[in-house]
Amino acid sequence: MTGRFAPSPTGRMHLGNVYSALLSWLSARSQGGNWLLRIEDLDPQRSHREFAEQLEDDLRWLGLTWDMGGTHDPLYVQSRRGHFYEEHLELLQQKGLTYPCYCSRADIMATQAPHESDGRVVYRGTCRPDGTPEKAEWLRRRALACPHAPATRLRVPDCDIRFTDLHYGAQSFNLARQCGDFILRRADGAWAYQLAVVVDDALMHVTEVVRGRDLLQSVPQQLYLYETLGYEAPRFGHLPLLCNTAGQRLSKRDQSLHMGILRQSFRAEEIIGRLAHHAGLIDRCEPVSAAELIPLFRWDKLPMDDIIIAG
Ligand code: GLU
After folding, report:
1. Which among 63, 86, 157, 220 has the fewest CB atoms less than 10 Å away?
2. What single DSSP character describes residue 214?
3. In the CATH hierarchy, which top-level class contains the domain 2-80+240-308?
4. What pLDDT, in 10s, does the model give residues 220-258?
5. Superfamily designation of domain 84-161+174-193
6. Residue in 18, 23, 40, 78 to alter for ligand 1 test, most ligand atoms within 8 A of Cβ
7. Which helix (H) or strand (E) holds 299?
8. Best CA proximity match to 217, nearest among 184, 194, 183
9. What number does the ligand 1 atom closest to the CA of 17 have?
């Protein structure tokens, strides 16, 4: 089997990123599998190579070794993989599943309310052709009036997608109602996460995706892409999130919990031990190496609820 860690190099890793890396690594290693490191630097404004290199240094320091990938192999760096995304986009275009979208973010926000459960905005299909000459004419005029290049969206059918998460169990999402037609390539030419992640995991033969539960809601879109592109989907296992005492998911703002600060005060084994204790893998919060945890990893020990971390 092959697992992976796919960080976006937009800042120093914080404890939440380390938690995801550790558990994904443990799941792969406990099955005797490979673990690869992919750099998800698709956002040109926020991604920086120095962050990616620092992240590699932090992973090595923690004892989380990878078998393939990293900054030195362009095959595992998303900003160097545009030709793969292009090829797959063309495939979807040939199947007639995509359409140009001229909506600005402001247009989209103005025409619909965020999805009730998670605050996501579901696209209502303003630019989706419906086969009528009236809509075709309306879209033609919209294209002429649009000052910029269009984004490209994938048209999704009204169907339920069911899957079993390794940790959160049976899941069911309606693609049209809960996800909506989604972006494959942005108007500024940047590739969208959903397309890139599926193409990469498929071409890299990833068989298990372990990551934070904030991405659980992306699985239906990703499964639909696997199916339409003709690839076998990996297994998905999502993790509870690490939150600060205000109940917010840890972010770059929680300065006291980023690796730069933590490495000044703690040994790697102390950080790993604290996370392993939060994960229910050890009974007491005591120093332990990542390698020592391999035989102790089991999904059913992990908590379902998010984990509150005091700074
Ligand atoms: N690059 C994403 C992030 O850092 C993770 C994507 C994934 O694991 O599918 O949040």
Report:
1. 157
2. G
3. alpha beta
4. 999 999 999 999 999 999 999 999 988 899 987 787 789
5. Glutamyl-tRNA Synthetase; Domain 3 (3.90.800.10)
6. 40
7. none
8. 194
9. 4
